[in-house]
Amino acid sequence: MASVGTVHSGNNVNLKSEQSVDTPQRFSLPPKPSVTADSSLRFKISGLKVSYGPKEVLHGIDINISSNVVTALIGPSGCGKSTFLRSLNRMTETVRTARVEGDILLDDENIADMDVVKLRRRVGMVFQRPNPFPKSIFDNVAYGLRINGHKGSLSESVEHSLRRAALWDEVKDQLHKSAYTLSGGQQQRLCIARALAVDPEVLLLDEPCSALDPVTTAKIEELLFQLKPSCTIVIVTHNMQQAARASDFTAFLLEGRLIEYQPTPKLFTTPADPRTEAYITGRFG
Ligand SMILES: Nc1ncnc2c1ncn2[C@@H]1O[C@H](COP(=O)(O)OP(=O)(O)O)[C@@H](O)[C@H]1O
Ligand SMILES: [Mg+2]
């Protein structure tokens, strides 16, 4: 089995790659650490199948996700990107008809055996549409801290999370205003701050920029770079440029199967599978 490359059905794709990753940078950011053979694996996923009622939409996905990198999921609408992402913190269980088979190990522990509240504290999620609670900016960020019985200064923790989400300067004088007074891009960063407040090890982002303007999108991409040392990020994106700019590894899904999984520069320059090439050059999807 190749350590990285085209996916042959049944093979476990393992990104213990010896290649360093050197994604072109658009922002003035510090150089990215290279991803080496030693990158530890946060998720080990094997034989993941998900069905809604009688319809199977993921047909046996084998993939390992490295720690402290950004992994992008791309693929045409309906190929199962959101389903895959939601299975990583068992959000699939919120759909009554959903059935999940296979193993998802988080730091070598099967997530099926974990307490779901603890799992979701470790694996946070941000959705496509910002969904702030009908509360103040402050209370949105403090929400997870309060329900987890946070010890210490709530205000300091709220400020820290808003800073990490690159929103603090814009909201510091209006923390007690309703979250709904914020723009769409600010609301999305607020949702990221809310997810970050409980210090997740993994952040799942499902097309977080699809409704945002380019300036806000750039802020969120910059945020991904900044979060990497402390967080493993998996992002679904429809935007190929975004995947190319912001991720270290890219997985291409098609009709519920993982077609190719590569270091991002490789997938976008010399894809191994003709279906990947067709997709990234806009021939379908
Ligand atoms: N809650 C649901 N109930 C039934 N079918 C669903 C549900 N969510 C998604 N699906 C179906 O599963 C397939 C994959 O959907 P999804 O994971 O949302 O794909 P993507 O995010 O790539 O667009 C699609 O055929 C979609 O219609
Ligand atoms: Mg989706």
Describe the fold and architecture.
By secondary structure, this protein is an alpha/beta fold. The protein has ten helices and eleven strands. The longest helix is centred in the last third of the chain and has 14 residues, at 184-197. The radius of gyration is 18 Å and the shape is globular. The structure holds adenosine-5'-diphosphate (ADP) and magnesium ion (MG). Magnesium ion (MG) is lined by residues 81-82, 206.
Can you give keywords for this protein?
285 residues; alpha/beta; Rossmann fold; 4-stranded antiparallel β-sheet; 10 helices; 11 strands; 31% helix; 24% strand; globular; disordered N terminus; binds adenosine-5'-diphosphate; binds magnesium ion
Kindly summarize this structure in a few lines.
The chain is built from ten helices and eleven strands. The chain is of the alpha/beta class and 285 residues long. The chain has one domain (5-115, 123-135, 200-280): P-loop containing nucleotide triphosphate hydrolases (Rossmann fold, 3-Layer(aba) Sandwich), CATH 3.40.50.300.
